[in-house]
Amino acid sequence: MLYSLAGIALFCIALRAVILATAPLRAILAVNVMSSGVFLVLVALARRTPGLVADPVPHAMVITGIVVAVSATAMAIVLTQRLRANVSAPTVEDTPGAGP
Amino acid sequence: MTWQAALPLLVLASSLLPGLVIFALPERSRTLRTALNLSGAVVKLFLVVWMLWQSGQGVHYELRAALLPGLDLVLRSSELGLFFVVLSALLWLVTTIYAVGYLEDSPNRSRFFGFFSLCVTATAGAALAGNLITFLAFYEMLTLATYPLVVHRGTAAARRAGRMYLAYTIGGGGVLTLGTLWLYSITGTLEFVPGGIVAPFVDRNATALSAAFVVLVAGIGVKAALVPLHSWLPTAMVAPAPVSALLHAVAVVKVGAFGLMRLVFSTYGVEAASGLGLAQGLAVVAAVTIVYGSLRALAQTNLKRLLAYSTVSQLSYIALGIALGGAVAATGGIVHLVHQGLMKITLFFAAGNLAETLGVHEIRDMRGAGRRMPWSMAAFTLCAFGMIGTPPMAGFISKWYLGIGAVDSDAAWVVWLLAGSSILNAAYFLPIVWAIWFEPPPEQWPHDKRSGRAETSLMLLVPTLFTAAMALAVGLFAATPYSPLEWARLIAARQYAP
Amino acid sequence: MTALEPGSTWVVWLIVSPLAAALIAFLLPRVAAAIALANALFMGVAALALLDLVTEQGPHRYSLGGWGAPLGIDLYADPLSGVLLVVAAVVVLATLFYSRDYLARTAIGPLFWPISLFLHAALNALLLSADAFNLYVTLELLSLSAVALVALADEQRAVAAALRYLLASIVASLAYLLGVALLYHTAGVLDLAALAERATWTPATWAALGLMTAGLAVKGALFPVHFWLPGAHSYAPSPVSALLSALVVKAPFYVLLRLWYAPFAGAPEAVGTLLGLLGALAIVWGSLQALRQARLKLLIAYSTVAQIGYLFLFFPLAQSRSALQGVTVFILGHALAKAAMFLAAGNMHKCLGHDRIQDLHRVARELPVTLAAFAVGGVCIMGLPPSGNFIGKWLLIEAAFAQGEWGWAVVVVAGGLLSAAYVFRVLGHAFTVDDKPVDASGAPASMAWAAFALALLALTLGVFAAPLIDLIGGPGETAVAHLSSREP
Fold it and tell me: Are strands B71-76 and C60-63 parallel, antiparallel or unpaired?
């Protein structure tokens, strides 16, 4: 229970960081912290029944989740690099949302 | 399915297919385009007359395609629909000839005639529609097909007019959709049936039905140019003359007026519409429109604007006839569909001839035009008198029936209204007629394009004279068996004695 | 599941074939286009065959490797997923056909082919998923391939938009995943059908409802969390914009729809009303923003924001069968029409060298087929008959009247009028005559006609929709399959 609450706390803190982040790298790191929080919850909830054997399904989910998170992170880093290749100080906010 | 059963579809195809082919034609293939246009129009006229004749033999045409669960797209031959489709097919042929002559050297003719054909397809579809949702579909199609014609010239004024036209008609279409669905949620059917579909629901849902009627009239009233939904019509007169003819006589406003008939006769039924007090309300709106249109017409200096306001006013005779209750008034309203169409198309043709041949757009420049263009101006004069309601022109017949009908239904105020409106009509038409014939022509017309021996191109003159002659004939021979009047009387009798 | 049921192969092919094609296209760039087109054709056939199958025999469940629901992965197909698979195949086919000539004229590399094939595989897998976690994985794969496609446009702002899209998308998926964890905690299963039976309303379920709905709303670009959409959809290469706006953005909504029939079936009305209100705001806000845009592709992207709003009107009306039918037909109509509009816009952009709306003069003359495609697509977006969008709106309004909530009906109609305003803002410019020279080099016929074909399909969808509508939302079909349907 404690672990799941810690995981949820991590999730919330990191969510705040993502929303407030200005530099892409910070946002990417925060997202990773977020995913760690989620995985922590999953693993913690796997111990649902008192006993020695934990539920394997959440573990499978965590593994898949980590794979997905890693690939997404890799992609985000590549994009950040491509941004950096052209602009000196990229920010997430400089995407023109409303156009010229 | 034999080709006979598919006749309503063929009527639509006879203008749709040429239209689609014309879009694809290059600008320079003029002969082919004209041939397609005219053959489409002739074939369509032939098909509708054939359908009319077959219907007279007792053949009933109906085509259905499922659209939604429990709701079909329906094309059906009915007396009222045939009446309208014959009128529009005839006037389309005439207008096509006129348009070919009028747009002789202007750009984008393929586009123009393509949309022109789509307009007529939509009108025929609305006429043959067998239920409200089919009518709605063609009503919207008409809006879209007309827009490119209104903005055809591409000038700033044309685009402004186009925007206004869209704002009104698309808005009207949205309102009509809402009303249609509302009605559907009450009745569970949208079929056009003589006597209407709402009768079983009047007791339980009177309020909702009345409110839905108001919404529906607001939707259709845009195209029928009921005040205060009329402003787009005078603005849209910036379009070329054939488009004005199309807007004012063949298609757009006619579909509006026809829609009101469908609403009162075939959806609500005269009994329910009068019982709920809805017809009376419509009559009042129509009366206000008649007077308002005439008053505004008085103040105009531009000929086409004047004619446009005159249309606003004249159209509401149709609405008035439907709304008064009683077969005689309805006859007047229904037959005015034809009469107003013939007279107004002639007036716009004549105005177009003036603009195209002499460059005259303003009323003050029309002085002495009768000497330069006697034939066109004679047609103009004839139909102006018709609009005023002088016997034996067609307009007189309509007003006569409306008046008698009003007395029959204890609405004597309508007689005063008709008298007053005729005086107003005279007040704005007679000075023009006077100026045409009895004032000296100017030394120099604004842009005189004299060509050949006739006063103007024959492609322009012949349609004008033809429609003027028709307008005279339907008045003179109103009492003969196959006149529009007799036909209208038959339809009206059917509505009141199902 | 032991024996292969008849037709199960189609379910597998729908996922395996685009994956294999993606691999081949990646390894052999020279045949990539041909492979992709062949695969798209095959997908069309397979989706139609599957739709036919589920129409004949009812919902269809298939266990990968024969493991069965609690442990293994189940695939599931019913008429809803069937029609969506078909429309996905149609849009992809037209878009890829268009892309052959588009790519030849731009610097976008051959990577487009494998990634778009991968996207198609992810989308198909998502539409066929039967459990909450599988939906997470497929959603994530879909987002990753979508982001990669956006980033293909070698422009600074496109890359920035892609990054923004990616971050929003990851955060959204994590929220969704946390929700899945909580759901699993309460019910002990992931299969949607099993969840529908076991779900109880504990605080954890509530949290899951909030987290999953919020995550899917971000991914589905529901107002006010649509911020990532306009940039990503407008700066992407045009065929990518078409795929994104037509298909990808519908996927999260589809997931939410499935959840709404399974674990969240008993969600209180207030939640549905809230989603509906946000949808209504999206319609108004998106349309007003579209009216203000100076660039054509941004206008279309904001139009997507508005049209997504219509989808969410489903939730307050979910009690009526016609709401589900309406929203399904609406998805189909919007997918076809919006793809047509983006493809047409791409054409104008390529030929004129810009997509500034006020400089679109004479497009009518230079690019008639392209303009016709845009106009017809626009007419569908406006929801005029007989387009699929009209049918969809009609059914939604019918549901609103049936529940006596006519306010939603007014929103639907008002949204249509607003969309007419922005569509004609473009068309009006296109009719302008002036003397500015236009150096339109002319578009390849294939590009113009691909757009036009989609638009024409969208317009005539209403005429063919009647049998489709009857398929959708039959009794008991909407809940993603009771487990009993596994037994033949």
Answer: unpaired
Which of C288, C289, C328 is closest to C310 using CA atoms? C328
Domain assignment present for residue A96? The answer is no
Which residues in C88-100 are b (16+ Cβ under 10 Å) and which e? bbbbbbbbbbbbb
Predicted local confidence at residue B365, as pLDDT: 87
Q: Are B12 and B65 in contact (CB under 8 A)?
A: no
Class of residue B93 by CB neighbours under 10 A (exposed 0-12, middle 13-18, buried 19+): buried
In a domain, A67, yes or no: yes
Contact at CB, C463 and B73, closer than 8 angstroms: yes
Residue A1: predicted pLDDT? 73
Chain C residue whose CA is closest to B175: C413
Residue A78 lies in a domain: yes
CA distance C300 to C305: 9
ipTM, interface predicted TM-score of the complex: 0.88
Q: Please name the member of C401, C420, C433 whose beta carbon is closest to the beta carbon of B185.
A: C401
Distance from CA of C237 to the nearest CA of B (A): 30
* CATH number, residue A70: 1.10.287
Rounded Cα–Cα distance for residues C196 and C265 (Å): 7
Q: Answer yes or no: do C398 and B181 touch at CB < 8 A.
A: yes
Tell me the Cα Rg of chain A. 17
Distance from CA of C161 to the nearest CA of A (A): 6
Intervals of chain B under pLDDT 70: 1-2, 450-453, 497-498
Any domain includes A98: no
Mapping DSSP onto H, E and C, the string for B382-432 reads HHHHHHHCCCCCHHHHHHHHHHHHHHHCCCCHHHHHHHHHHHHHHHHHHHH
Listed residue (C378, C357, C399) closest to C455, CA to CA: C378
> Scanning every residue of chain C, which has its alpha carbon at the shortest distance from the alpha carbon of A22?
C164
Nearest Cα to B496, choosing from B324, B351, B244, B352? Answer: B324
- Whether B355 and B241 have beta carbons less than 8 Å apart is answered as yes
Q: Which two tokens stand for residue C118?
A: 């991968």
Shortest distance, CA A47 to any CA of chain C (angstroms): 10
Domain count, chain A: 1
Residues in chain A with CB shorter than 8 Å from the CB of C174 are: 11, 31, 34-35, 38
Q: Which residues of B touch C417 (CB under 8 A)?
A: 170-171, 174
pLDDT digits (tens, 9 = 90+) for C165-210: 999 999 999 999 999 998 888 888 888 888 888 878 888 889 999 9
Contact in structure between C249 and C304 (CB atoms under 8 Å): yes
Domain locations in chain C as residue ranges = 8-486
3-class DSSP assignment, residue C78 = coil
In this structure, of B292-296, C52-56, C397-401, the range with the lowest mean pLDDT score is: C52-56
Chain C environment of B155 (Cβ under 8 Å): 433
What residue has token string 């925007």? Answer: B163
DSSP B276: T
Q: Using an 8 Å CB-CB cutoff, list residues of chain C that contact chain A.
A: 71, 133, 136-137, 140-141, 144, 147-148, 151, 156-157, 159-164, 166-167, 170-171, 173-174, 177-178, 180-182, 184-185, 188, 190, 227, 230-231, 234, 289, 292-295, 298
- Inspect the interface and report whether the beta carbons of B144 and C379 lie closer than 8 Å: yes
Which residues constitute the domain of residue A47?
Answer: 2-88
- pLDDT grade, residue A49 (50/70/90)? low
Of C137, C167, C181, the CB nearest to A31: C167
Minimum CA–CA partner of C432 in chain B: B154
